[in-house]
UniProtKB/TrEMBL annotation:
GO terms for biological process: lipid metabolic process. Pfam families: Lipase_GDSL_2. The lineage of its organism: Eukaryota, Metazoa, Ecdysozoa, Nematoda, Chromadorea. This is SGNH hydrolase-type esterase domain-containing protein. SUPFAM superfamilies: SGNH hydrolase (SSF52266). It comes from the Eukaryota. It comes from Caenorhabditis remanei (Caenorhabditis vulgaris). Keywords: Signal.
């Protein structure tokens, strides 16, 4: 009889025992290392002051490695909604906040895990400049079946395939203010009223500190890259007339530098312009027709007297203002628009990808990846 009762007792308790051992199998007896796993929700885009305030505190807290059965989450002893084992929480930037989670164990047993979670400071990057850094020529999604191409920002032709975005995605716990805009000159869009630097100033005020890193692509539209070819076609003595333009661009770059100094932005990365004229042998080549009917000598002239001259000006300015000059010459040395291994968008590709020709003569996706890698390596990010 006693044996029988014992047997019944065991049967009744069997499920519990099973749960217990099952439970111990997945959740070994707790130790002191039961902490939240904290990750950031990235990459963060900081385009407005409210992005900064919101994003600064946004963390993904997970306790799923301890238990997926959560009863309650509390922040500073206030119960918040939700019983999933990971959740996005907004953490105050000052001093952190106490996060407490009650997890359910077998027999309705509750285990409490509680710790102060601090919001990590983000590595803040900013991109200022023209179509080179906006990623013109590389829509996020190409136009297809009569549907328009998609961009992060269409009027500015900003793309998630552009090097600033790629770098921020590569850098853990970073935030990017992507302000570059296709067509920008210093005068019309960088230091203008409501321009990129004024925009940046508002973000700096919201953040309470300058960015950790700023990418800059300027000078190309100021010098007038787009009309160089057509001007040279009409008059090969045009290069002398560019003296004034170079003088002007030099001054424009100084104005940007002074503004950035005022704003306490100290780590600036200046990109030189990519050379679109070289074929796979490293020679200036327009034979694929990309440059229209411009003669080879004129193309060589444009390359030497405009592009190379602008790049040496940029390097000189970078040295003068203690900016970091990132040299991408070798990336494009044999990979211009008429090269068999071109890194430059042709007019046809642009028409196909984005439904207009504005993407032509810009670096393609692969080029942006190579540039991003180069910058990451140069800066040891
Ligand atoms: C938060 O982190 C957990 C655990 O790493 C993961 O499973 C979950 O998908 C993350 N949530 C978000 C929104 O990133
Ligand atoms: C730059 O730094 C100086 C000295 O720390 C400070 O006085 C000034 O207000 C800062 N400028 C801006 C725009 O934050
Ligand atoms: C571009 O497309 C046009 C018409 O579709 C074609 O005739 C031309 O050969 C193409 N050009 C290049 C460089 O592929």
């Amino acid at each position: 009889m006693l044996a029988f009762l014992y047997f019944v007792q065991m049967l009744i308790n069997l499920p519990k025992m099973l749960v217990l051992s099952w439970n111990n199998m997945i959740f070994p007896p707790s130790d002191s290392s039961q902490h939240f796993r904290i990750s950031t929700v990235s990459p963060s885009l900081w385009m407005t002051s409210s992005d900064i305030n919101a994003n600064y505190r946004t963390l993904n807290l997970s306790i799923c490695h301890v238990s997926i059965q959560v009863a309650t989450w509390r922040i500073d002893d206030v119960i918040v909604d939700g019983t999933s084992c990971s959740r996005i929480l907004k953490i105050d930037k000052l001093g952190g906040q106490r996060v407490t989670v009650d997890i359910l164990k077998a027999h309705g047993e509750i285990q409490r895990i509680s710790e102060v979670v601090k919001s990590e400071r983000k590595f803040w990057m900013v991109s200022i400049g023209d179509s080179f850094s906006s990623g013109q020529g590389n829509p996020d999604k190409k136009s297809e079946n009569g549907k328009k191409a998609e961009w992060m920002d269409e009027p500015c032709y900003r793309s998630t395939k552009a090097f600033p975005y790629l770098i921020s995605r590569h850098t853990p716990n970073s935030a990017l203010s992507f302000l570059s805009c296709s067509g920008s000159t210093v005068e019309n869009s960088i230091i203008s009223k409501n321009g990129q630097l004024e925009h940046l100033q508002r973000l700096i005020t919201a953040h309470g500190a300058p960015p950790d890193l700023l990418f800059l692509t300027i000078g190309g539209n100021d010098i007038g890259f787009t009309d160089v070819i057509s001007l040279i076609q009409r008059d090969s003595k045009i290069t002398d007339k560019f003296d004034m333009r170079f003088f002007f661009v030099s001054h424009q770059i100084d104005r940007v530098a002074w503004k950035l100094k005022e704003m306490n932005v100290s780590r600036v990365v200046l990109l030189d312009y990519y050379d679109a004229t070289k074929n796979e042998k490293g020679e200036v080549d327009g034979s694929c027709g990309a440059f229209g009917r411009v003669s080879l000598p004129n193309l060589q002239l444009a390359d030497r007297k405009i592009l190379q001259r602008l790049n040496s000006l940029l390097r000189r300015k970078a040295a003068e203002h203690r900016w970091i000059a990132v040299d991408t010459t070798d990336i494009f040395r044999t990979r211009g628009i008429c090269s068999s291994r071109s890194l430059i968008r042709s007019r046809n590709e642009s028409m196909m990808l984005q439904g207009n020709e504005y993407g032509s003569f810009h670096p393609n996706e692969e080029a942006h990846r190579l540039i991003a890698e180069r910058i990451v390596k140069t800066l040891e990010l």
